[in-house]
Amino acid sequence: MPQEIEIEFKNLLTEAEFNKLYEVFNMKNVPEIQQVNHYFETKDFQLKQHGAALRIREKNGKYQSTLKQPQGEGLLETHDFLTEQEANSWLQGYITLGPEISKQLQELGISTAELIYGGSLETVRREQSYNDTIIVLDRSKYSDVTDYELELEAQSYAHGEHVFNTILTENGIAKRKTPNKIQRFYDSLRNR
């Protein structure tokens, strides 16, 4: 499916909070998912100005480009699958967009020629179903940073918000403003 609406809630965690939730949700028996996000932007951050983000996700030997854009209470995700050769070309600066993302960027007035590779972020993820949502615990590494994050994906905003807030409250975790991974990645480059 080339497009979908994603409703998710995020909260950065301390390492201790991450370990607590890891135990609370018995994640030790949940398989790890290793993924690498490769981020792309223009020199003057045109995507960010539109609240959008562009990445290639490398997972299980497969490559998918994704453009995320604000859409109501969630994010509109537009996907195109890539071969390994196409993904490697992107990383070398030869970006050839698939039809779906190309169309979306044209609507934003952003030219493929302006896109540049920013770098990568590696994540070890564990996820499982919980109360009609999906709970995700991520440990991500980028630049000289390791961070920990709780994500919760839901079908409806109201239900997801309720489950998310309940998890935080029951585990004594403060709600924190949590920029998305691409924002944290680019912020880490500025802080070097």
UniProtKB/TrEMBL annotation:
Residues 4-192 form the CYTH domain. It holds the Pfam family CYTH. InterPro entries: CYTH-like_dom_sf (IPR033469), CYTH_domain (IPR023577), Uncharacterised_YjbK (IPR009195). Coiled coil: none annotated. This is Adenylate cyclase. It comes from Terribacillus saccharophilus.
